[in-house]
Write a structure and sequence with these properties.
Shape: globular
Helix content: 25-40%
Strand order of the largest sheet: 3-4-5-6
Radius of gyration: 23 Å
Structural class: alpha+beta
Strand content: 5-15%
Length: about 270
């Protein structure tokens, strides 16, 4: 007798496909979470290195932090010169390379360290003249919030960054929780290290140097959905998250709603 080879029936094939689909639906989110966990570890490590680099910088410059822009919105990525910054004093306009990717190279010796894998930043573009990077391409925001006191004040001669707005508009964000900001007359220089000395801050473990420049990417949501409608957001008021590195060199992950994130970025320097 001839051996008759029996194949799978249609029902059996459909059952196998259904099982595979169910397993994929279960496992793919797990794999995605594992990938994001690895990205978070990289982001945290990057910020830790940036923080240590900034500490080394202060040792070379009389324990004073550099005047650097918060992020790329104030940089001309074709020339590497600053624009729309505060006129001060000091006047921070038309200066070459006042962003972390340029200034911190002698200490970090790496361009990759400024890339958070979750945010997928741009690639560095280098100058043919001095070999330095021209574009503020990275994923991290420096602790620059503007110059001078003034609650609800418009920036003088420049474009307000989110960090500056957090301080200037503290009376509207959370007048009770941020009462210490109001007492400082909403002066960004009380809360951010740019241009300040180490001695100016009494709570180095609570004073941020740099942070991952997103409210929601590490939570899988849009930044706009975390910011309240009164501040230009969608009004969904979702939970957000970010990473930060502080003056004492430690880096951490923090999570919460908009007000909690703002309070993390604007800690009371007096510790009360």
């Amino acid at each position: 007798m001839k051996n008759i080879k029996r194949g799978f029936t249609l029902i059996e094939l459909l059952v196998v496909i259904a099982i595979i689909a169910i397993l994929a639906a279960i496992l793919f989110p797990v794999f995605a979470q594992a990938r994001e966990a690895a990205r978070k570890t990289t982001c945290l490590s990057n910020l830790k290195q940036i923080g240590l680099g900034l500490i080394m910088y202060t040792q070379d410059y009389d324990e004073t932090y550099p005047w650097l822009m918060m992020d790329g919105r104030n940089n001309n990525n074709s020339t590497g010169f600053s624009k729309n910054m505060s006129v001060g004093p000091p006047n921070l306009n038309n200066l070459r390379g006042i962003f972390m990717e340029y200034t911190m190279q002698p200490y970090l010796k790496s361009y990759q360290v400024f890339n958070c894998p979750t945010l997928i930043p741009s690639k560095p573009v280098f100058s043919a003249t001095d070999g330095g990077v021209l574009n503020e391409y990275g994923s991290y925001a420096y602790g620059y919030g503007g110059i001078g006191a003034g609650c609800l004040a418009s920036p003088t001669g420049g474009t307000a960054t989110p960090l500056e707005l957090f301080v200037r508009y503290a009376p509207l964000i959370d007048p009770v929780g941020l009462s210490h900001v109001i007492q400082s007359n909403c002066n960004p220089q009380v809360y951010y290290p740019a241009g300040q000395t180490l001695a100016a801050f009494q709570q180095p473990s609570r004073t941020g140097l740099a942070l991952c420049d997103s409210y929601g990417a590490h939570r899988g949501v849009q930044d706009n959905d975390i910011v309240p409608a009164a501040f230009g957001g969608s009004g969904k008021n979702l939970q957000g998250a970010s990473f930060g590195v502080f003056m004492d060199g430690h880096a951490k992950f923090f999570i919460g709603g908009f007000v909690k994130l703002v309070n993390t970025v604007l800690p009371n320097p007096n510790g009360n």
